[in-house]
Amino acid sequence: MAKILMINPIVRQEDDPKHIPYGISLLAAIAIEKGHQVCIYDENAWRKGMDVIEQVCQADDWDVIGIGGLTTTYGSIKRIVKICKKVAPNAYVIGGGGFITSMPLDIMSWLPEIDLGVIGEGFVTWPEVLEKIDNKDFDFSQTLGVCYRDQSGNPILTNVRPNIHDLDTLPYPAWDLLPLDIYFKNSSILYSEAAYSAKRRIDINGSFGCGFICKFCWHLGTTGDMVVTEDENGKKDVQFTYGRNIRFHSPRYIVNMVKTLVKKYNIDFVTLIDENLMTMDHASGRKWLKELCELWIAEGLQPTSRRDGVSDQENKGGVFWSGTSHASLANKETLDMMYKAGCSHLVYGIESYDPTILKNLGKGVNQKHNIEAPRICMESGIIPIPNIIIGFPQETFQSIRTNIEWLKKLGIHSKPHFATPYPGSEWYYSYKESILEQYNGNLEAFIQDLGDASKITAVISHNFSPAQLLGLQKIVMDWDLRLLDLTEKYFAEAADSIKPLARPKQSFNMIKKKVATPMEEPQKAGVGN
Question: Maximum distance among all alpha carbons in the chain?
Answer without folding.
Answer: 70
